[in-house]
Design a protein that fits this description.
447 residues, two-stranded antiparallel sheet
């Protein structure tokens, strides 16, 4: 009799566990995004490709949570060529937040190289969720994977695979204004066909085509020469002030170059850093935590910001390979000081416009729309790379600093910075005005 009672207690406890819903906190989506960032740093993805890797998993998660949350609207019909995701079976105990996590993880796994790292992360969570409530986990897993398949089919039509087989960029040394590979690795120009990637929200890659850079001329007194000379003069001033100068600190904080090559004797290797898009994804996490955003609010913030970043890269790269402008390092070494080196290592693609400026401008507009005009924050994104926390009174202030950091770093002229941040802000404003992700009436009632 005692044995029977004991078994009945065990069965009862098991049933209670089955009925306990699996709780998904915003920290879980932060963890998943952080894991993707960590793997991308390991795999050394280019900044444009990294932006694509962030965006599709975020959209998959967002589309799931938007089904049951009256605050949010589906992106189907708003984002190019996206059709509605399949509906969940109402007869199954699908946890939408859990399904969103699973879809995010599965799509992330497909987009990075080191799948084993993502699979290990996934399996540890699967085991935890299954132990908490196996029935709910399996129903949510099946649905999350179904949505991931739907988003993956849409993703495969964005022209990314086709650009992998397009010809490499051809350097034109006959024109003195044209970009040339820079030391120490002299890498070929990366992603010369990125403008052919299907955008998410903007109408086309050239929609926010900026004004051209100043006409090329190395004659003293010309507008272009003045910009070249300004980069050199600022660097010499910084050199005189030493590594503790504010400009050097700003340049290093916003470096975010995954292609930094280091030479030790006959050995050359790459140091690993986050991309500029990843830095702004990190700022999104900081803002979500500071504002105590819930799971759905956090997914919304990541999704909207990552789409702006991705479209900013498409817009910027369209201009980079149109103007195909030579970098300061090449001209300063040829015409002013053959021993000069920039504070930052010059990244391997044309100069105009500044990618950091465009991306930062776009991200700052979207984040301001989500969190408010005067949202102050402490940016600890670069702590893992030995850089201190920097504090900002707004996203716009951070974007302005990110933009000017490129001139302090010696890798961009002033026009690329100032025109680039305007290009990004114009693009960000377009996204904010075009996308209808939130039901404003529901938000007003909730407040």
């Amino acid at each position: 009799m005692k044995k029977i009672l004991f078994l009945m207690v065990l069965v009862s406890l098991g049933c209670q566990r089955e009925k306990t819903p699996i709780e998904i906190s915003p920290e879980l989506i932060h963890s998943s995004v952080d894991k993707v960032t960590e793997i991308m740093i390991h795999d050394i993805f280019s900044p444009p490709v990294a932006s694509r890797i962030f965006t599709y998993p975020n959209i998959a998660a967002y589309e799931i949570i938007a089904q049951d949350d009256d605050k949010y609207r589906s992106l189907a019909g708003q984002v190019h060529e996206l059709t509605p995701i399949p509906a969940a079976d109402p007869g199954k105990p699908v946890n939408k937040s859990l399904a969103a996590m699973i879809a995010h993880i599965d799509l992330s796994r497909r987009l990075i190289f080191s799948e084993d790292q993502m699979i290990s992360y996934r399996d540890s969570l699967y085991a935890l969720w299954s132990a908490q409530n196996k029935t709910e986990f399996e129903a949510s897993r099946d649905y999350g994977l179904q949505v991931a398949e739907h988003i993956a089919a849409w993703m495969d039509k964005d022209n990314y695979k086709q650009t992998r087989t397009m010809p490499k960029f051809t350097v034109n040394t006959d024109e003195p204004s044209r970009w040339q590979p820079t030391p120490p690795a002299y890498m070929a120009g990366i992603e010369p066909h990125w403008s052919k990637i299907r955008p998410f929200v903007i109408d086309s890659a050239e929609q926010f085509k900026p004004v051209p850079p100043p006409p090329f001329s190395m004659e003293e007194g010309s507008d272009f020469y003045k910009e070249v000379r300004e980069v050199y003069d600022i660097s010499k001033k910084m050199e005189a002030e030493g590594d503790d100068s504010e400009e050097v600190e700003i340049a290093k904080f916003w470096d975010c170059n995954p292609y930094v090559s280091v030479t030790r004797g006959h050995l050359m290797f790459a140091t690993k850093k986050i991309t500029p898009g990843a830095h702004w994804i990190g700022i999104t996490k900081i803002a979500c935590r500071k504002s105590n955003s819930g799971f759905n609010e956090t997914v919304h913030a990541y999704t909207k910001t990552s789409m702006a970043i991705a479209d900013a890269f498409i817009s910027c790269w369209d201009e980079k390979y149109r103007s195909n402008l030579i970098r300061p390092e090449t001209l300063i070494n040829e015409h002013i000081d053959d021993n000069w080196k920039p504070v930052l290592q010059t990244p391997p693609f044309p100069e105009y416009t500044s990618g950091h400026s465009v991306v930062s401008g776009a991200a700052s507009i979207v984040l301001t729309d989500i969190f408010g005009e005067d949202f102050s924050f402490d940016d600890d994104t670069e702590l893992a790379y030995g850089l201190p926390v920097r504090s900002f009174s707004s996203f716009r202030e951070a974007a302005d600093e990110a933009a000017i950091s490129r001139m302090y770093g010696g890798i961009h002229y002033r026009a690329a910075v100032e025109v680039g941040v305007k290009q990004g802000r114009d693009l960000g404003s377009f996204i904010v005005n075009k996308l209808k992700m939130e039901n404003k009436s529901e938000l007003a009632q909730s407040k």
